What we know:
globular; alpha/beta; about 200 residues; Rossmann fold; about 10% strand
Amino acid sequence: xxxxxxxxxxxxxxxxxxxxxxxxxxxxxxxxxxxxxxxxxxxxxxxxxxxxxxxxxxxxxxxxxxxxxxxxxxxxxxxxxxxxxxxxxxxxxxxxxxxxxxxxxxxxxxxxxxxxxxxxxxxxxxxxxxxxxxxxxxxxxxxxxxxxxxxxxxxxxxxxxxxxxxxxxxxxxxxxxxxxxxxxxxxxxxxxxxxxxxxxx
Length: 201
């Protein structure tokens, strides 16, 4: 288990910048690595703090907090899912003014999320969700199938793309020979435009 900071962090941020969207990359604490000093509560604290910190500085960064979303790949998809499905929780150590802010994302984008992204249930006020994976992904195609069913049951808006070809870790499409995976980011942008989070041309 590693943080893929460049291919699934920096590259995604650059892609968002290219379509006029501000992006921040979170380097969170890993708890599943061998001999890791961290526990699951630590990346939870990291993502909650990150969402609240960006919200607290929205004016400085010229960000519309009604369009503040979260995105994650693989284990990062788990971290993103945790804040999206558990945002009422108080994941704080020493609370300050920032920790009192709302952590709920306006939307979430989960790309081949790990199995820990799947909660026991999805509440009616969970954020609208975009799910994407390749069917050949033994780890992380099943979570999006479970999540789409849970969203439908909760009547929470959801869109899912399950591609016939491919496996895990195709990143922003650059690591795949398949055209469908090479162009998947455009499906995400289409979804964002249809929901008003990105302006239509």
